[in-house]
Hints:
Blueprint: H1 28-37, H2 40-44, H3 63-81, H4 85-94, H5 105-112, H6 121-132, H7 146-152, H8 158-167, H9 174-178, H10 184-208, H11 213-216, H12 220-232, H13 238-268, H14 273-277, H15 287-305, H16 308-330, H17 337-340, H18 345-354, H19 358-369
Helix pairs in contact: 1-4, 3-4, 3-10, 3-13, 4-7, 4-10, 5-16, 7-10, 10-13, 10-15, 12-13, 16-18, 16-19
Amino acid sequence: MNLAAYACDPARTRGRRRPEAPAPTRTEFQRDRDRIVHSTAFRRLVYKTQVFLNHEGDLFRTRLTHSIEVAQLARSIARPLALNEDLVEAIALAHDLGHTPGHAGQDALDECMRAHGGFEHNLQSLRVVDKLEERYPDFDGLNLCFETREGILKHCSRANAERLERKEPGGIGRRFLDRTQPGLEAQLCNVADEIAYNAHDIDDGVRSGLITLEQVAQVPLFGEHHRAAMQEHPQLQGRRLLYEATRRMLSAQVYDAIAATQARIAQAAPAHEDDVRRMPALVCFTEDLRARAAELKSFLFHNLYRHPRVTATTAQAQEVVRGLFACYVDKPQEMQAGYTAREDLHRAVADYIAGMTDRFAIREHERLTGRRLLG
């Protein structure tokens, strides 16, 4: 693997919290990726959804398919930049491990946990790989490398960063206090996540009937590729036209991110991965594409995420989460045994709910309350 001098090199990793002997055939970041893929939390992502709840149909994106799409896009950008593809794949596959059932379940869980430290899904993803996975005899969690963990923790409040710093001085929370950057691989995954979201929400939104292809074609970023597809293939219509326009839009964003990042790296001239952390973010879009992507986000927010059917489903999903939280706090014995024995009851309840798939949460809510919500 020919890495740039400013890429994260597994030979120079800041290591694992618990030292381990190296693997004979894999780098440290390959081991991280493999541990994530084999984790229980990763398997559950197949039944956790994005905008749509799992009961609404089998063809819509889940958090598993989203994570795979992010990993593919991230690797496509990483290679021409000579960044570490194994690391970007590991980060991409793990970035949603802490997400709650339902797209807005995290808001409801944060509300329930407000007096008990709050709930952040990025922090929960880190908690999953640091503590909650139970696969190894000598440690909790997956014992991932520092660089993978810093990429997973995309956002973090100052209060939570301070808590992390007290537990791990100079560790994963330090950059949120110092206002420094993560490595380029982590920055890249943030951009790939954004690219994937816009594309698959258009696809799922049109196929669900909540928005129309004609509506999206009026948005400049998508519209230019829609027009180009129709000019080149006048016979295209329906799903083929949607897929072709979306494919072109995806490619344009990938190529823009590569070119804009190359230009910014050339100007900043980092000589080492630690230089990257002291510089402003280097992985980026051009200003023109960033503005057009913002227009698309605004369109999706007002026409898809705030569609009456979506908001109704969101409200019910939040009611499920709030109902489960209240029931488990009142009757901890209703949770699995491993959670009832924990010292911090409220955090144990949040961990239990956050780990649920959509359909398990719906079934549990009906079992505990006698009310059937969401299908």
